[in-house]
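Hey, quick one: can you model this chain's 3D structure?
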Amino acid sequence: MGYKLITIDMDDTLLTTAKEISEKNKIMIQRAMKKGTKVVLCLSRPHKAMYDYARSLGIDGDDNYMITNGGAIIENMSGKIFYQKTLSNDFYREFVSFVKEHVLPYCVLDIQGNTYTSGFEFIDDYTIAMAYGNSRGLYIKEPEDLPADFEITKAVINGNEQRLDEITDFINRRFSDYFVVRTGVGYLEIFPNNVNKGEAVKHLAKQLEIDLEIA
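Sure thing. Here's the predicted structure for all 215 residues.
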């Protein structure tokens, strides 16, 4: 019996260092899909960064899915979200107060993948790179500039490797009720607890009535 579901991480896994999908991998993925296997791409970034890759593989339409924002959102390829776990506006305000107190460069992302940060004297390179990589906007806003029900998918503290090494334990203790993880060079990210790609795969499999247990 063939596989019913294949989930594939993108950055540093399916994508080459040039951020491309190799022809061999395209052929193998399309071959699996022709056999009826559901192929789901998983990405730490928002959905807009996923669409071109998915469509190049023929993954499209209401009956195909993607896991984005590190597992915080599951949506179909038509953009309908049917699962999301976000951080509240109260958390957002608390987080911004904290990073300002400790003079830590930061950004946050909304469910569309837009990037927000405060009006510091300069915007750090990691925030600019994140906004560029997400193919969405970069907004200079304070929490009070945004609606009272504004929520975020993740909060990010930026810095070079040495600086993040110095503060990671401190951030883990301060935000112990959340999922804190280093994601690539320059980013220490905070998600709601139990948000990760693995949990999202479990949720999607249940939605699709696919048993993940190995016989």
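One thing worth noting: The mean pLDDT is 89.
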